[in-house]
Amino acid sequence: MDLPQLLLVGLVLLLGVVGVLVPGVPGTWLVWAGLMWWALHERSAPAWSLLVAATALLLVVQVVKWQLPPRRLRGVGVTRRMAVFAGAGAVLGFVLVPVLGAVPGFMGGIYLCERLRLGTHGEAWASVRAVMRAVGTSVLVELLACLLVVGAWLGSVVAGV
Question: What are the pLDDT digits (tens) for 39-80?
């Protein structure tokens, strides 16, 4: 696969990761579609293995996500701005501390958004706890799975598979 196509696949994967944070956007499916596009062009055993493993992981995550208890998002004050901060924090955390950094990065993004909005540490931390109870678990599970898939794809591309 040539560089422009790799960049397009990377863009689709990035849009999928961001789409996990935006209600109504099929982020997980975009990640899967981007990976499938790459595997269809690569036609190698590692590429197909990654596609099969990612498919299984993303399907399991969809089942797990629907089993988690739903909560009211607007009731705890979740805004689009907060979703952007949380997503940016998760991606930054994932890059700084691969895989495990997504969780504290997600929480850090929420905290920063709320600290800027509310002004004090105590109020911001109380808001982080409320948001994490309402939305954090299901979004974080899906986001972490998509980041794992993107990380595995990136590792495969860098390794030259």
Answer: 999 989 999 999 999 999 999 998 888 777 655 666 667 788
Whether pTM > 0.85 for this model: the answer is no
Residue type for 26, please?
P
| Strand ranges inside the chain, DSSP E | none
Which residue from 130, 128, 72, 127 is spatially nearest to 103, judged by alpha carbons? 128
Residue 156 to residues 5, 42, 60, 85, 92, Cα–Cα distance (Å): 15, 11, 22, 29, 20
Question: 157 with 6: CB under 8 angstroms?
Answer: yes
Q: What is the dihedral of CA 59, 14, 73, 104, to 10 degrees?
A: 90
Which residue, among 152, 139, 103, 123, has the nearest Cα to 25 in the 3D structure? 139
Q: How far is CA 133 from CA 18, 52, 129, 136, 137, in A?
A: 21, 32, 6, 6, 7
